[in-house]
Design brief:
- The protein has 131 residues and is mostly helical.
- It has a domain of 49 residues.
- It starts with a helix and ends with a helix.
Length: 131
């Protein structure tokens, strides 16, 4: 508390006003702003009507503009070979999938054969030991 008082006393101040004059706050900004001690306030009121029951809004269906036009394509009119290109791609994917499947089945069969052969050998050895 004492420090605050000491700082305020050491702070440079403007000298007292000459007789017949008084000090005023002056704006030095580039724009003018009205200064007042009181904040302006205003009361505004509004009242709404109670919500009334109303029928549901109808679906929005835009009005037609222009005339309807259709296109008919007869056999032989299409000169596009996309169907053939798609068929080739489909065959390629099918063959790749089939090849991968058969490779997996072959590996499993090879594993089963090895394990079955191992079981047979173990049985033969155990049979020969007890006979």
């Amino acid at each position: 508390m004492a420090r605050k008082r000491a700082k305020q006393q050491l702070r440079p101040r403007s000298p007292d006003a000459v007789e017949g004059r008084k000090h005023m706050d002056v704006q030095t900004e580039l724009y003018l702003e009205e200064l007042s001690d009181r904040v302006e306030e205003a009361d505004v009121e509004c009242q709404t009507d109670a919500f009334l029951d109303r029928p549901p809004s109808p679906l929005f269906i835009p009005a037609k503009s222009g005339t309807d036009v259709c296109t008919q394509i007869n056999d032989g009119d299409v000169r596009c070979k996309r169907g053939l290109q798609f068929l080739g791609l489909l065959l390629l994917v099918t063959y790749a999938l089939l090849n991968r499947f058969l490779t997996g089945v072959g590996n499993q069969l090879m594993f089963v054969n090895k394990s079955a052969r191992g079981k047979l050998c173990r049985r033969a050895k155990s049979f020969s030991l007890f006979s």
